[in-house]
């Protein structure tokens, strides 16, 4: 039996005991009940049967007047009102939100795309009609493996990334907006600028300045299980952020320039060595406040 027809019969209390028991097994039945309760507050327009019959008689005197079945008309109108209420309720309330707190979190989307949400980051998206509106709001950083399909968009407060099917990383924190493409092709929009990235390309926008670079990695350092983090011509601020995320620490850099480039490898299993490499490369001193708080200053 057609699902819509079953829903209409249920709304009109016309299901048999057997049909009702089967209908309650539908995974969406709790949703239908909730919508029915909310829709009870909605009112259908008043139906003036006498006026409608008068109009019919006046315009078609030569024809036999057939009395309308008021009950079915009102029921159909009620179904339409509930359907509209259902659509509005679902579109505006069925959202999923995921946070990466002290750990990264893997999120599987309805189309089998995958998102790895970094620490202290979050994503939000609407599940209803997902395959026709693949849009995610991102705060912080996340790595995306996008299944082929309709346009996939990632919106941040600094810029937007649009793809069809690919793997890429987006980092939007403070005044820095960085996008790295690991597979396929992505379109990046930042204010009034637009550019296309292909495999191995990355771009960083910071305080209205743009810097392009390349990577030989297959995924971002923070999402990998490798014991080394590799960097190619990336600025110091991005590297410090990777170290913070990898070791779950805070590193202050208020008194030093962080727009300098770095190419090389850092261990992802030894914080002291990683900091020493950065300090010796840029002639900096490491001040340790506690086990999770550091500051890099000029010597």
Summarize the structure.
This protein has 299 residues and is an alpha+beta fold. 29% of the residues lie in helices and 37% in strands. The protein folds into 3 domains: 3-93, no CATH class; 97-220, Jelly Rolls (Sandwich); 225-299, 3-Layer(bab) Sandwich (Phage tail protein beta-alpha-beta fold), CATH 3.55.50.
Overall pLDDT level: 80
Strand coverage percent: 35-45%
- Please tell me the CATH architecture of the largest domain by its name: Sandwich
Using the coordinates above, name the CATH class of the largest domain: Mainly Beta
Helix fraction bin: 25-40%
Roughly how many Å apart are the termini? 78 Å
As a whole number of angstroms, the C-alpha radius of gyration is 29 Å
**Which structural category fits the helices and strands?**
alpha+beta
CATH level 3 topology of the largest domain: Jelly Rolls
Globular, elongated, flat, extended or rod-shaped: what is the shape? elongated
> Low-confidence segments, ≥5 residues, pLDDT <50?
none
Largest sheet: 13 strands, mixed
Count helical runs: 7
The total number of structural domains is: 3
Strand and helix order: HHHHHEEEEEEEEEEEEEEHEEHEE
Total strands: the figure is 18
Question: Can you describe what's shown?
Answer:
With 299 residues, the protein is α+β, with helices and mostly antiparallel strands. The protein has 3 domains: 91 residues, no CATH class; 124 residues, Jelly Rolls (Sandwich); 75 residues, Phage tail protein beta-alpha-beta fold, CATH 3.55.50. It is 29% helix and 37% strand. The protein contains 7 helices and 18 strands. Strands 1, 2, 3, 4, 5, 6, 7, 8, 9, 10, 11, 12 and 13 form a 13-stranded mixed beta sheet that branches. A 3-stranded mixed beta sheet has the order 15-18-17, with helices on one face. It has a two-stranded antiparallel ribbon with strand order 14-16. A hairpin with a 4-residue loop joins strand 6 and strand 7. Helix 3 packs across helix 5. The termini are far apart. The mean pLDDT is 80.
């Amino acid at each position: 039996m057609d699902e819509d027809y079953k829903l209409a019969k249920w709304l009109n209390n016309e299901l048999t005991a057997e049909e009702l028991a089967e209908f309650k097994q539908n995974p969406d039945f709790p949703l239908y009940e909730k919508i029915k309760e909310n829709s009870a507050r909605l009112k259908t327009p008043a139906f003036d049967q006498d006026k409608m019959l008068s109009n019919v008689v006046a315009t078609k005197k030569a024809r036999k007047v057939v009395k309308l079945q008021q009950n079915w008309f009102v029921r159909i109108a009620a179904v339409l009102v509930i359907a509209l209420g259902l659509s509005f309720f679902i579109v505006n309330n069925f959202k999923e939100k995921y946070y990466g707190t002290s750990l990264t979190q893997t999120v599987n989307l309805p189309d089998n795309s995958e998102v790895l949400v970094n620490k202290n980051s979050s994503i939000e998206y609407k599940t209803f009609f997902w395959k026709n509106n693949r849009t995610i709001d991102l705060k912080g950083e996340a790595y995306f493996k996008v299944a082929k399909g309709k346009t996939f968009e990632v919106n941040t407060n600094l810029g937007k990334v649009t793809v069809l099917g690919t793997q890429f990383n987006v980092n939007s924190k403070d005044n820095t907006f960085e996008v790295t493409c690991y597979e396929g092709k992505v379109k990046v929009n930042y204010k009034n600028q637009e550019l296309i990235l292909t495999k191995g390309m990355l771009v960083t926008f910071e305080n209205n300045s743009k810097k392009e670079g390349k990577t030989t990695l297959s995924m971002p350092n923070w999402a990998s299980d490798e014991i080394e983090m590799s960097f190619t011509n990336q600025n110091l601020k991005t590297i410090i952020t990777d170290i913070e995320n990898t070791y779950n620490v805070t590193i202050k850099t208020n008194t030093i320039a962080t727009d300098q480039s770095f190419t090389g490898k850092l261990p992802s299993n030894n914080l002291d060595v990683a900091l020493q490499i950065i300090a010796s490369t840029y002639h900096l001193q490491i001040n340790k406040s506690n086990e999770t708080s550091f500051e890099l200053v000029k010597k």
